Amino acid sequence: MSKNDLILQTGVFLNQVRENTDSNMKCFLPSPKDFPQLKNDTFLRAARGEETEHVPVWCMRQAGRYLPEFRESRAGKDFFETCQSPEACCELTLQPLRRFPFDAAIIFSDILVVPQAMGMDVQMVAGKGPTFPEPLKEPEDLQRLQVKVDTDKELGYVFRAITLTRHKIEGKVPLIGFSGAPWTLMSYMIEGGGSNTHSKAKRWLYQHPEASHMLLKMLTDVIVEYLLGQVAAGAQALQVFESHAGILGPAEFKEFSLPYLRDIACRVKDKLKEAGQDVPMIVFAKDAHYALEELSQSNYEVVGLDWTIDPLSARERTGGKVSLQGNMDPCALYAPKERISDIVKKMLEGFGTRGYIANLGHGVYPDMEPENIGAFVEAVHQHSKQMIKQI
Ligand SMILES: Cc1c2[nH]c(c1CCC(=O)O)Cc1[nH]c(c(CCC(=O)O)c1C)Cc1[nH]c(c(CCC(=O)O)c1C)Cc1[nH]c(c(CCC(=O)O)c1C)C2
């Protein structure tokens, strides 16, 4: 063997050692204790309706394709493999914080990891979005699902991502954990992906109400364990996404969504109370303005709002029972910066500065200018500081 061959082989060997060490990295990941002290708790105080020096702000999908560094990190990598890497999730969660003074971070993951944990195959297809090759078609298909999910085993990668990120965030801002709500997850599991009408999933509600409740209950049980696992791992707040609330009417929402949203909050809170923990919970039921009163009495500290609700009437209808989060139309981020500032000012005047967390009414879109997200954050901070000083 020549000297060059030997050097080459040694190099290959060392790379293999490094790769093996990386794949065993979870052994070296930090544990969920001794977290750095929280320096900015504005978001948590606002969630609890306490006084703050400025209105806290974060954006749904703040870690996303609108950031060139996000596109670079994700390039060529499978979406769900990325979700399964604590290091990758941590990096993607921290990216927006390096650019903007957000008051909270949300762990990079996806709501569809829960159906995966229950035994369903979900793939992220480029240009199409999440796809279930074998969606649920008839009630008998429920037998394919895992009823009792060991969340530590099936979703431990999310918990490890949360623990790592909570350490790496260095107490800058709180870290939000999340889950999809039962109805939204059920609709994906039956539709097999995104849909305009959600008619396949809604057919179940009208043709198979009992099986629908059975599935919603199964999902609720997993979600409760999953959210508790996220808190044990280091999540400091929790958001439940009922993104498909708007395709239900008020009666169907009351029967197939609201009871499960309530059950999740009650069971998570009861368990946390036993452990002496108090973690604010946010419910975001998109387009469910018809259910605002009920949502404000469903045991969540914060109700997230989409942009179809007027801030002042949202305050009136929720009667000061909860903090509110939202709700600038994401498309307002296409406006020039001065206009964004004016829109933010009006929004703050409508909501008031107490018990309020500024956010968009839904996620940031991939074609939005990072600079305009910066302008949104700055406008919230600047205007709210002035308003609070004048009180
Ligand atoms: C950035 C991203 C995510 N998911 C998807 C993407 C884009 C794809 C990519 O980057 O490759 C695919 C991805 N995942 C999903 C979709 C929507 C598909 C559809 O119904 O059309 C897409 C494109 C499903 C999903 N996934 C999520 C929801 C609820 C929020 C909402 O209403 O948008 C939903 C509905 C939650 C979610 N998803 C994600 C986060 C964490 C990042 C952050 O918010 O900063 C969160 C909280 C991350």
TrEMBL record:
CDD domains: URO-D
EC number: 4.1.1.37
Domain Uroporphyrinogen decarboxylase (URO-D): residue ranges: 56-65, 176-192
Keywords: Cytoplasm, Decarboxylase, Heme biosynthesis, Lyase, Porphyrin biosynthesis
Molecular function (Gene Ontology), one example: uroporphyrinogen decarboxylase activity
Top EC class of this enzyme: lyase
Listed pathway(s): Porphyrin-containing compound metabolism; protoporphyrin-IX biosynthesis; coproporphyrinogen-III from 5-aminolevulinate: step 4/4
Cellular component GO terms held in the UniProt record: cytosol
Example GO biological process: protoporphyrinogen IX biosynthetic process
Reactions catalysed according to its record: uroporphyrinogen I + 4 H(+) = coproporphyrinogen I + 4 CO2; uroporphyrinogen III + 4 H(+) = coproporphyrinogen III + 4 CO2
Subcellular compartments: Cytoplasm
UniProt similarity note: Belongs to the uroporphyrinogen decarboxylase family.
Job description of the protein: Catalyzes the sequential decarboxylation of the four acetate side chains of uroporphyrinogen to form coproporphyrinogen and participates in the fifth step in the heme biosynthetic pathway. Isomer I or isomer III of uroporphyrinogen may serve as substrate, but only coproporphyrinogen III can ultimately be converted to heme. In vitro also decarboxylates pentacarboxylate porphyrinogen I.
HAMAP family associated with the record: URO_D
Protein name: Uroporphyrinogen decarboxylase
Natural source organism: Oreochromis aureus
Upper lineage: Eukaryota, Metazoa, Chordata, Craniata, Vertebrata
The gene coding this protein: UROD
